[in-house]
Design goal:
362 residues, eight-stranded parallel beta barrel, two-stranded antiparallel sheet, 12 strands
């Protein structure tokens, strides 16, 4: 029997998700400069919980101050952030949604004008004005991912997702194009993925078996290859440490870049994995009720929603009520987005998406 959008999911850790919709971890630049939660970001996220997303994930939240990837990013690297996260986790859970923090470090993608110093990377990168991490700094980075997870647990979150996608620091370690180290954290795929596996293992050990733990990977772009990501994904599944795998596909129905001769689309290549008891979610151009059902019909456990969740805070509710639901067409007005819980700051950020927001009056 095929999955339905309204079906519940129970993860290995015991957590139950009330439906098949997860809010994607979306950059919004609404927090304070020191990484503490703002009223605007609180409103944006809790509105999605009220809109019946079964799992509400924060934007990428950096685990080290030097890992900040964009202005006004939500942080979780300091106890200064505990008060806001505690308030946010409680409010999301009060709506019956799972509350999850995405743990992030931008690495070489940390802009100097944001962090005020040279960025860090697995290897020196003149192009990105980034320096290589020392072994001691790698160990500290690993500890800070774990400390951030423990902080999230203390704040009342159901779990965390480790961000290993989109060219950020864990992707930089995974990529043979970027990672030129010659020690245990570079060279072979086993070495390049070592840091990711150590972080996941340590979070599970320190946060316990009842803490929801996921990892996000992207099988293409940023120097990643589908075959290597499939190998890493299967190893993560076999390790029995994660509850869910979150794959950012950009477009679930596109051909695989590594296999241009193949008749399979990217999602069909992913579905060749043996997921065992690990749940799979994918993101990538899932915009309508029919898209949601189509992805679930492939055997995906739940969908990760970005654009649709920005345009409709209650996208899950609408799709469950109407399987043929179609998004409002872009561009939309700034007033429309304000009514959907976006602040002026977030609306300004969304103007970077071509044709998303109506042009300002001249």
């Amino acid at each position: 029997m095929k999955n339905k959008p309204q079906d519940t999911i129970t993860f290995n850790c015991g957590a139950t998700m009330k439906n098949r919709f997860m809010l994607a971890p979306l950059t919004n630049q609404q927090s304070h400069d020191n990484g503490t939660l703002s009223n605007e970001e609180f409103h944006w996220l809790t509105m999605r919980a009220k809109g019946q997303f079964g799992l509400v994930m924060t934007c990428a939240s950096h685990v080290q101050e030097i890992g900040k990837g964009f202005p006004r990013q939500l942080g979780i690297f300091s106890d200064l952030h505990i008060e806001g996260h505690t308030k946010l986790a409680a409010a999301i859970k009060a709506e019956g949604s799972l509350a999850v923090v995405q743990l992030h470090h931008a690495g070489m993608r940390s802009p100097k004008d944001v962090i005020g110093k040279k960025a860090v990377c697995p290897s020196d990168s003149e192009k990105h004005n980034a320096r290589a991490l020392t072994i001691h700094e790698i160990q500290q980075l690993k500890a800070d991912f774990v400390n951030a997870a423990l902080r999230a647990k203390h704040c009342g979150y159901d779990g965390v997702e480790v961000h290993g996608a989109h060219g950020y620091i864990l992707t930089q370690f995974l990529s043979s194009d970027i990672n030129k180290r010659t020690d245990n954290y570079g060279g072979s795929l086993k070495n390049r993925s070592r840091l990711l596996f150590e972080i996941i293992s340590d979070i599970r050990t320190h946060c316990g078996d009842e803490f929801l733990l996921g990892v996000r990977l992207s099988p293409e772009k940023f120097g990643m290859r589908l075959s290597e990501i499939k190998t890493i994904s299967q190893q993560l599944i076999n390790s029995k440490t994660i509850d869910f795998l979150d794959l950012s596909l950009w477009d679930y129905f596109k051909p695989a870049e590594e296999h241009p001769e193949s008749q399979l689309n990217l999602l069909e290549h992913i579905m060749q994995l043996d997921f065992k008891n690990v749940k799979l979610t994918v993101a990538g151009n899932i915009r309508t009720g029919k898209d949601v059902q189509r992805v679930l019909d492939y055997g995906v456990d739940f969908v990760t929603i970005g654009r649709s969740g920005i345009l409709h805070h209650d996208f899950p509710k609408r799709v469950i009520a109407n399987p043929d639901f179609v998004l409002i067409e872009n561009p939309v007005s700034a007033d429309y987005l304000k009514n959907e819980g976006l602040s002026e700051t977030f609306i300004t950020y969304m103007r970077r998406w071509d044709g998303f927001v109506e042009d300002k009056d001249i």
